[in-house]
Protein backbone atom coordinates (compact mmCIF):
# COMPACT_ATOMS: atom_id res chain seq x y z
CA UNK A 1 0.00 0.00 0.00
CA UNK A 2 1.26 3.47 -0.89
CA UNK A 3 2.99 5.71 1.68
CA UNK A 4 3.22 9.14 0.07
CA UNK A 5 3.88 12.54 1.65
CA UNK A 6 2.76 15.76 -0.03
CA UNK A 7 5.37 18.53 0.12
CA UNK A 8 3.44 21.26 -1.70
CA UNK A 9 0.15 21.20 -3.59
CA UNK A 10 1.74 19.50 -6.59
CA UNK A 11 5.00 18.07 -5.23
CA UNK A 12 5.02 14.64 -3.60
CA UNK A 13 7.59 12.44 -1.89
CA UNK A 14 7.31 8.93 -3.32
CA UNK A 15 10.45 7.37 -1.84
CA UNK A 16 10.91 4.54 0.64
CA UNK A 17 13.16 3.44 3.49
CA UNK A 18 15.21 0.32 4.12
CA UNK A 19 16.08 -0.87 7.63
CA UNK A 20 17.32 -4.30 6.57
CA UNK A 21 20.43 -3.27 4.69
CA UNK A 22 23.44 -3.78 6.97
CA UNK A 23 25.92 -1.63 5.06
CA UNK A 24 25.28 1.25 2.66
CA UNK A 25 27.38 0.77 -0.50
CA UNK A 26 28.37 -2.50 1.19
CA UNK A 27 30.85 -0.36 3.11
CA UNK A 28 29.16 1.80 5.78
CA UNK A 29 27.09 0.38 8.64
CA UNK A 30 23.61 1.92 8.78
CA UNK A 31 22.04 0.76 12.04
CA UNK A 32 19.28 3.32 11.58
CA UNK A 33 18.64 2.36 7.97
CA UNK A 34 18.53 4.62 4.93
CA UNK A 35 15.87 6.41 2.93
CA UNK A 36 15.82 6.66 -0.84
CA UNK A 37 13.94 9.79 -1.78
CA UNK A 38 12.15 10.28 -5.07
CA UNK A 39 9.76 13.08 -5.94
CA UNK A 40 6.86 13.67 -8.32
CA UNK A 41 5.66 17.02 -9.65
CA UNK A 42 2.15 17.04 -11.10
CA UNK A 43 1.92 19.72 -13.75
CA UNK A 44 0.53 19.83 -17.30
CA UNK A 45 3.25 17.24 -17.74
CA UNK A 46 4.14 14.82 -14.96
CA UNK A 47 7.71 14.69 -13.71
CA UNK A 48 9.49 12.11 -11.57
CA UNK A 49 12.79 13.20 -10.04
CA UNK A 50 15.01 10.15 -9.58
CA UNK A 51 14.02 6.59 -8.72
CA UNK A 52 15.18 4.33 -5.89
CA UNK A 53 17.28 1.36 -4.92
CA UNK A 54 16.05 -2.04 -6.09
CA UNK A 55 15.34 -3.19 -2.53
CA UNK A 56 12.50 -0.68 -2.09
CA UNK A 57 11.24 -0.79 -5.68
CA UNK A 58 7.81 -2.28 -4.83
CA UNK A 59 6.97 0.52 -2.36
CA UNK A 60 8.22 3.16 -4.76
CA UNK A 61 6.09 1.95 -7.67
CA UNK A 62 3.01 1.78 -5.43
CA UNK A 63 3.68 5.37 -4.38
CA UNK A 64 4.29 6.54 -7.93
CA UNK A 65 1.15 4.85 -9.24
CA UNK A 66 -0.93 6.37 -6.47
CA UNK A 67 0.30 9.92 -7.11
CA UNK A 68 -0.07 9.64 -10.88
CA UNK A 69 -3.59 8.32 -10.38
CA UNK A 70 -3.87 7.03 -13.92
CA UNK A 71 -1.91 9.82 -15.63
CA UNK A 72 1.01 8.95 -17.87
CA UNK A 73 4.51 9.73 -16.67
CA UNK A 74 6.00 12.27 -19.07
CA UNK A 75 9.51 12.82 -17.68
CA UNK A 76 11.97 11.20 -15.32
CA UNK A 77 14.84 13.48 -14.34
CA UNK A 78 17.97 11.57 -13.38
CA UNK A 79 20.04 13.72 -11.09
CA UNK A 80 22.35 10.86 -10.13
CA UNK A 81 23.03 7.52 -11.81
CA UNK A 82 24.32 5.61 -8.78
CA UNK A 83 22.22 2.44 -8.43
CA UNK A 84 20.83 3.44 -5.03
CA UNK A 85 18.82 5.97 -7.07
CA UNK A 86 18.44 4.45 -10.50
CA UNK A 87 18.36 0.70 -10.08
CA UNK A 88 14.60 0.92 -10.66
CA UNK A 89 15.03 2.78 -13.96
CA UNK A 90 14.73 -0.33 -16.13
CA UNK A 91 11.45 -1.34 -14.48
CA UNK A 92 10.24 2.27 -14.71
CA UNK A 93 10.74 2.26 -18.47
CA UNK A 94 8.90 -1.04 -18.75
CA UNK A 95 5.94 0.33 -16.79
CA UNK A 96 5.92 3.78 -18.42
CA UNK A 97 7.06 3.17 -22.00
CA UNK A 98 6.37 6.76 -23.15
CA UNK A 99 8.45 8.44 -20.45
CA UNK A 100 11.25 10.74 -21.57
CA UNK A 101 14.52 10.64 -19.66
CA UNK A 102 16.16 13.94 -18.70
CA UNK A 103 19.86 13.91 -17.90
CA UNK A 104 23.22 15.09 -19.15
CA UNK A 105 25.59 13.46 -21.61
CA UNK A 106 27.37 11.55 -18.85
CA UNK A 107 24.05 10.25 -17.55
CA UNK A 108 23.32 8.75 -20.94
CA UNK A 109 26.71 7.01 -21.03
CA UNK A 110 26.12 5.55 -17.58
CA UNK A 111 22.66 4.27 -18.51
CA UNK A 112 24.39 2.33 -21.27
CA UNK A 113 26.93 1.00 -18.79
CA UNK A 114 24.40 -0.14 -16.19
CA UNK A 115 21.58 -1.31 -18.44
CA UNK A 116 21.08 -3.10 -21.72
CA UNK A 117 18.72 -0.39 -22.88
CA UNK A 118 18.76 1.82 -25.92
CA UNK A 119 17.26 5.06 -24.64
CA UNK A 120 18.84 7.51 -27.08
CA UNK A 121 15.55 8.39 -28.78
CA UNK A 122 13.74 9.17 -25.57
CA UNK A 123 16.66 10.93 -23.88
CA UNK A 124 16.54 14.71 -23.37
CA UNK A 125 20.12 15.90 -22.95
CA UNK A 126 20.56 18.93 -20.74
CA UNK A 127 23.62 20.95 -19.83
CA UNK A 128 24.42 23.67 -17.31
CA UNK A 129 21.61 26.22 -17.07
CA UNK A 130 19.19 24.51 -19.47
CA UNK A 131 15.52 24.69 -18.57
CA UNK A 132 12.50 22.47 -19.08
CA UNK A 133 8.96 23.81 -18.87
CA UNK A 134 6.22 21.40 -17.89
CA UNK A 135 3.37 23.89 -17.78
CA UNK A 136 3.29 25.97 -14.61
CA UNK A 137 6.71 24.72 -13.52
CA UNK A 138 10.07 25.52 -15.02
CA UNK A 139 13.04 23.35 -14.07
CA UNK A 140 16.62 24.54 -14.37
CA UNK A 141 19.47 22.02 -14.45
CA UNK A 142 22.83 22.71 -12.83
CA UNK A 143 25.79 20.37 -12.98
CA UNK A 144 27.32 19.18 -9.71
CA UNK A 145 30.15 16.90 -10.83
CA UNK A 146 31.68 14.66 -8.15
CA UNK A 147 28.94 15.40 -5.65
CA UNK A 148 29.07 12.50 -5.71
CA UNK A 149 29.76 11.06 -9.20
CA UNK A 150 30.84 12.90 -12.36
CA UNK A 151 27.36 12.89 -13.92
CA UNK A 152 25.62 14.28 -10.82
CA UNK A 153 23.41 17.29 -11.41
CA UNK A 154 20.88 19.20 -9.34
CA UNK A 155 17.50 20.46 -10.49
CA UNK A 156 15.92 23.75 -9.45
CA UNK A 157 12.20 24.29 -9.77
CA UNK A 158 12.10 28.01 -10.53
CA UNK A 159 8.37 28.19 -9.98
CA UNK A 160 8.22 26.86 -6.44
CA UNK A 161 11.88 27.52 -5.50
CA UNK A 162 12.57 23.86 -4.77
CA UNK A 163 16.10 22.51 -5.08
CA UNK A 164 16.44 18.80 -5.81
CA UNK A 165 19.98 18.43 -4.55
CA UNK A 166 20.87 14.79 -5.35
CA UNK A 167 23.27 13.32 -2.75
CA UNK A 168 24.12 16.74 -1.33
CA UNK A 169 22.45 17.50 2.02
CA UNK A 170 21.49 13.86 2.49
CA UNK A 171 21.97 11.71 5.56
CA UNK A 172 22.02 8.10 6.61
CA UNK A 173 18.88 7.06 8.50
CA UNK A 174 15.46 5.76 7.52
CA UNK A 175 12.40 8.00 7.63
CA UNK A 176 10.40 7.21 10.75
CA UNK A 177 7.22 9.12 10.06
CA UNK A 178 8.73 12.58 9.93
CA UNK A 179 9.69 13.54 6.41
CA UNK A 180 10.65 17.16 7.07
CA UNK A 181 13.68 18.23 9.07
CA UNK A 182 11.30 20.37 11.15
CA UNK A 183 9.29 17.26 12.03
CA UNK A 184 12.30 15.67 13.78
CA UNK A 185 14.93 16.90 16.21
CA UNK A 186 17.60 17.13 13.52
CA UNK A 187 20.36 18.53 15.68
CA UNK A 188 19.86 15.88 18.35
CA UNK A 189 18.92 12.82 16.30
CA UNK A 190 20.25 13.34 12.76
CA UNK A 191 23.25 15.64 12.71
CA UNK A 192 25.81 12.96 13.60
CA UNK A 193 24.54 10.75 10.79
CA UNK A 194 24.44 13.72 8.40
CA UNK A 195 28.10 14.36 9.20
CA UNK A 196 29.02 10.67 8.85
CA UNK A 197 27.22 10.56 5.51
CA UNK A 198 28.93 13.73 4.28
CA UNK A 199 32.42 12.80 5.47
CA UNK A 200 32.38 9.31 4.04
CA UNK A 201 30.35 9.74 0.87
CA UNK A 202 31.40 13.16 -0.45
CA UNK A 203 34.03 14.26 2.09
CA UNK A 204 36.83 13.84 -0.44
CA UNK A 205 35.22 16.32 -2.83
CA UNK A 206 35.34 19.56 -0.84
CA UNK A 207 36.07 21.90 -3.80
CA UNK A 208 33.24 20.38 -5.83
CA UNK A 209 30.86 20.78 -2.88
CA UNK A 210 32.04 24.39 -2.59
CA UNK A 211 31.13 24.87 -6.24
CA UNK A 212 27.66 23.48 -5.59
CA UNK A 213 27.27 25.76 -2.56
CA UNK A 214 28.22 28.70 -4.78
CA UNK A 215 25.45 27.79 -7.22
CA UNK A 216 22.95 27.24 -4.40
CA UNK A 217 23.81 30.64 -2.90
CA UNK A 218 22.45 32.31 -6.04
CA UNK A 219 19.10 30.60 -5.70
CA UNK A 220 16.16 31.37 -3.49
CA UNK A 221 15.51 28.00 -1.88
CA UNK A 222 12.19 27.40 -0.16
CA UNK A 223 12.41 23.63 -0.12
CA UNK A 224 15.50 21.44 -0.24
CA UNK A 225 14.89 17.91 -1.45
CA UNK A 226 17.91 15.58 -1.14
CA UNK A 227 18.00 11.96 -2.23
CA UNK A 228 18.48 10.66 1.33
CA UNK A 229 17.10 11.82 4.66
CA UNK A 230 14.78 14.65 5.65
CA UNK A 231 13.41 17.34 3.34
CA UNK A 232 14.16 20.92 4.42
CA UNK A 233 11.63 23.74 4.33
CA UNK A 234 12.78 25.75 7.38
CA UNK A 235 16.17 26.81 8.75
CA UNK A 236 17.97 25.51 5.66
CA UNK A 237 20.90 27.72 6.65
CA UNK A 238 21.75 25.31 9.49
CA UNK A 239 22.77 22.58 7.06
CA UNK A 240 24.27 25.01 4.53
CA UNK A 241 26.60 26.27 7.27
CA UNK A 242 27.65 22.72 8.18
CA UNK A 243 28.39 22.08 4.50
CA UNK A 244 30.51 25.23 4.39
CA UNK A 245 32.60 23.91 7.30
CA UNK A 246 32.80 20.31 6.13
CA UNK A 247 33.63 21.16 2.51
CA UNK A 248 36.53 23.38 3.60
CA UNK A 249 37.73 20.84 6.19
CA UNK A 250 37.18 23.47 8.88
CA UNK A 251 36.74 21.89 12.32
CA UNK A 252 33.27 22.33 13.74
CA UNK A 253 34.49 22.18 17.33
CA UNK A 254 37.63 22.76 19.34
CA UNK A 255 38.17 19.37 20.94
CA UNK A 256 40.19 16.18 20.73
CA UNK A 257 39.44 12.91 18.98
CA UNK A 258 41.53 10.11 20.47
CA UNK A 259 41.74 6.86 18.53
CA UNK A 260 43.78 3.99 19.87
CA UNK A 261 44.79 0.59 18.53
CA UNK A 262 45.77 -1.60 21.46
CA UNK A 263 46.59 -5.32 21.49
CA UNK A 264 46.73 -6.00 25.24
CA UNK A 265 45.40 -2.77 26.74
CA UNK A 266 48.63 -0.86 27.43
CA UNK A 267 48.24 1.53 24.50
CA UNK A 268 44.64 2.05 25.63
CA UNK A 269 46.00 2.86 29.10
CA UNK A 270 48.23 5.55 27.60
CA UNK A 271 45.28 7.04 25.69
CA UNK A 272 43.19 7.12 28.86
CA UNK A 273 45.95 8.79 30.90
CA UNK A 274 46.23 11.43 28.17
CA UNK A 275 42.46 11.96 28.06
CA UNK A 276 42.22 12.27 31.87
CA UNK A 277 44.93 14.88 31.92
CA UNK A 278 43.22 16.77 29.08
CA UNK A 279 39.99 16.83 31.07
CA UNK A 280 41.85 18.03 34.17
CA UNK A 281 43.23 20.83 32.04
CA UNK A 282 39.71 21.82 31.04
CA UNK A 283 39.49 20.11 27.65
CA UNK A 284 36.26 18.19 28.09
CA UNK A 285 35.16 18.09 24.46
CA UNK A 286 36.73 14.67 23.96
CA UNK A 287 35.85 11.50 22.08
CA UNK A 288 37.82 8.28 22.42
CA UNK A 289 37.48 5.13 20.34
CA UNK A 290 39.08 1.71 20.10
CA UNK A 291 39.93 1.48 16.41
CA UNK A 292 39.39 -2.29 16.48
CA UNK A 293 35.82 -1.88 17.73
CA UNK A 294 34.39 1.19 16.01
CA UNK A 295 33.84 1.23 12.26
CA UNK A 296 36.17 3.71 10.50
CA UNK A 297 33.21 5.64 9.07
CA UNK A 298 32.38 6.90 12.58
CA UNK A 299 36.02 7.85 13.19
CA UNK A 300 36.31 9.69 9.87
CA UNK A 301 33.14 11.55 10.76
CA UNK A 302 34.51 12.68 14.12
CA UNK A 303 37.77 13.67 12.46
CA UNK A 304 35.70 16.10 10.35
CA UNK A 305 34.15 17.39 13.59
CA UNK A 306 37.10 17.91 15.95
CA UNK A 307 40.05 20.26 15.67
CA UNK A 308 42.60 17.84 17.16
CA UNK A 309 43.39 14.18 16.60
CA UNK A 310 45.48 11.75 18.67
CA UNK A 311 46.52 8.44 17.15
CA UNK A 312 47.84 5.87 19.63
CA UNK A 313 48.95 2.61 18.09
CA UNK A 314 50.75 -0.62 18.79
CA UNK A 315 53.46 -1.71 16.36
CA UNK A 316 52.41 -4.77 14.38
CA UNK A 317 54.51 -6.72 11.87
CA UNK A 318 56.95 -3.80 12.07
CA UNK A 319 54.19 -1.52 10.87
CA UNK A 320 51.14 0.33 12.12
CA UNK A 321 48.50 -1.81 13.86
CA UNK A 322 46.34 -2.74 10.81
CA UNK A 323 42.97 -1.28 11.94
CA UNK A 324 44.76 1.98 12.78
CA UNK A 325 46.46 2.01 9.38
CA UNK A 326 43.07 1.48 7.72
CA UNK A 327 41.62 4.42 9.65
CA UNK A 328 44.51 6.75 8.83
CA UNK A 329 44.45 5.79 5.15
CA UNK A 330 40.73 6.48 5.20
CA UNK A 331 41.43 9.98 6.54
CA UNK A 332 43.94 10.50 3.77
CA UNK A 333 41.50 9.18 1.16
CA UNK A 334 38.96 11.74 2.37
CA UNK A 335 41.59 14.46 2.12
CA UNK A 336 41.32 15.44 5.79
CA UNK A 337 43.30 18.62 6.37
CA UNK A 338 43.68 21.63 8.66
CA UNK A 339 44.08 19.64 11.87
CA UNK A 340 46.56 19.34 14.72
CA UNK A 341 47.59 15.81 15.66
CA UNK A 342 49.64 13.95 18.26
CA UNK A 343 51.08 10.45 18.21
CA UNK A 344 51.58 7.70 20.79
CA UNK A 345 53.31 4.46 19.83
CA UNK A 346 53.94 1.13 21.49
CA UNK A 347 56.30 -1.74 20.69
CA UNK A 348 57.85 -4.35 22.94
CA UNK A 349 61.13 -4.71 21.08
CA UNK A 350 61.15 -2.21 18.20
CA UNK A 351 58.41 0.48 18.24
CA UNK A 352 57.84 1.66 14.66
CA UNK A 353 54.23 2.79 14.54
CA UNK A 354 54.94 6.35 15.71
CA UNK A 355 57.36 7.12 12.90
CA UNK A 356 55.07 5.59 10.30
CA UNK A 357 51.96 7.38 11.60
CA UNK A 358 53.83 10.66 11.67
CA UNK A 359 54.96 10.14 8.06
CA UNK A 360 51.42 9.35 7.01
CA UNK A 361 49.95 12.38 8.79
CA UNK A 362 52.65 14.65 7.43
CA UNK A 363 51.89 13.45 3.89
CA UNK A 364 48.41 14.97 4.30
CA UNK A 365 47.65 18.64 3.71
CA UNK A 366 48.10 21.06 6.58
CA UNK A 367 48.25 18.51 9.40
CA UNK A 368 50.53 19.73 12.19
CA UNK A 369 51.94 17.01 14.43
CA UNK A 370 52.38 18.46 17.89
CA UNK A 371 55.29 17.57 20.18
CA UNK A 372 57.33 14.38 20.25
CA UNK A 373 55.86 10.92 19.82
CA UNK A 374 55.25 9.32 23.22
CA UNK A 375 56.95 5.95 22.94
CA UNK A 376 55.94 2.98 25.07
CA UNK A 377 57.96 -0.19 25.39
CA UNK A 378 55.14 -2.58 26.30
CA UNK A 379 53.46 -0.52 29.01
CA UNK A 380 53.30 2.90 30.61
CA UNK A 381 56.11 3.50 33.11
CA UNK A 382 56.90 6.69 35.02
CA UNK A 383 58.80 8.39 32.17
CA UNK A 384 55.97 7.69 29.71
CA UNK A 385 53.37 8.85 32.22
CA UNK A 386 55.24 12.13 32.46
CA UNK A 387 55.53 12.36 28.67
CA UNK A 388 51.79 11.77 28.32
CA UNK A 389 51.05 14.55 30.83
CA UNK A 390 53.41 16.89 28.98
CA UNK A 391 51.74 16.04 25.67
CA UNK A 392 48.30 16.59 27.21
CA UNK A 393 49.41 20.00 28.52
CA UNK A 394 50.66 21.01 25.08
CA UNK A 395 47.48 19.74 23.42
CA UNK A 396 45.27 21.52 25.95
CA UNK A 397 47.10 24.79 25.39
CA UNK A 398 46.68 24.38 21.64
CA UNK A 399 42.98 23.45 21.84
CA UNK A 400 42.27 26.41 24.12
CA UNK A 401 44.24 28.84 21.96
CA UNK A 402 41.21 30.55 20.41
FE1 LIG B 1 22.95 8.18 -2.84
FE2 LIG B 1 25.85 8.71 -4.66
O1 LIG B 1 24.21 7.88 -4.23
What fold name goes in the CATH topology slot of the largest domain? Metallo-beta-lactamase, Chain A
Oligomer kind? single chain
The poorly predicted ranges are: none
Main sheet summary: 7 strands, mixed
What this model shows, in words?
The chain has 402 residues and is α/β, with parallel strands linked by helices. The chain has two domains: 5-247, 4-Layer Sandwich (Metallo-beta-lactamase, Chain A); 256-394, 3-Layer(aba) Sandwich (Rossmann fold). The chain is built from 13 helices and 23 strands. The chain has helices at 57-68, 83-86, 89-95, 105-114, 186-189, 191-202, 206-217, 236-247, 266-280, 296-305, 322-333, 353-362, 382-399, and strands at residues 5-8, 11-13, 16-18, 23-24, 28-29, 34-36, 39-42, 46-49, 75-77, 100-103, 123-125, 131-133, 138-143, 153-157, 162-164, 223-225, 253-261, 286-290, 306-316, 319-320, 339-346, 367-369, 374-376. Strands 1-2-7-8-9-10-11 form a seven-stranded mixed β-sheet. Helix 6 packs across helix 10 (296-305), helix 9 (266-280) crosses helix 13 and helix 10 (296-305) crosses helix 11. The longest helix has 18 residues, at 382-399. The protein starts with a strand and ends with a helix. The mean pLDDT is 98. The chain binds MU-OXO-diiron. MU-OXO-diiron is lined by residues 80, 82, 84-85, 148-149, 167, 227-228.
Give the topology:
Layout: E1 5-8, E2 11-13, E3 16-18, E4 23-24, E5 28-29, E6 34-36, E7 39-42, E8 46-49, H1 57-68, E9 75-77, H2 83-86, H3 89-95, E10 100-103, H4 105-114, E11 123-125, E12 131-133, E13 138-143, E14 153-157, E15 162-164, H5 186-189, H6 191-202, H7 206-217, E16 223-225, H8 236-247, E17 253-261, H9 266-280, E18 286-290, H10 296-305, E19 306-316, E20 319-320, H11 322-333, E21 339-346, H12 353-362, E22 367-369, E23 374-376, H13 382-399
Parallel strand pairs: 8-9, 9-10, 10-11, 15-16, 17-18, 17-19, 19-21, 21-22, 21-23
Antiparallel strand pairs: 1-2, 2-7, 3-6, 4-5, 7-8, 12-13, 13-14, 14-15, 19-20
The structure holds MU-OXO-diiron.
Amino acid sequence: MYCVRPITADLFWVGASDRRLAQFENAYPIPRGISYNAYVVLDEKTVLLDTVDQTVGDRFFENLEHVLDGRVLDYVVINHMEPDHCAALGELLRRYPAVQIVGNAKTLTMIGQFFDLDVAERFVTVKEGDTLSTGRHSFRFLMAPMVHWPETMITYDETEKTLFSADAFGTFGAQSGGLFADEVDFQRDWMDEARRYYANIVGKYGPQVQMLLGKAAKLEIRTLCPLHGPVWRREIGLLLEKYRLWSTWTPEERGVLIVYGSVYGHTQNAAEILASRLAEKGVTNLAMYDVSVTHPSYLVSDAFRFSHLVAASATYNMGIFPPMETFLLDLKAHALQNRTAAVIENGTWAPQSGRLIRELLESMKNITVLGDTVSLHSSVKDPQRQALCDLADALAADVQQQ
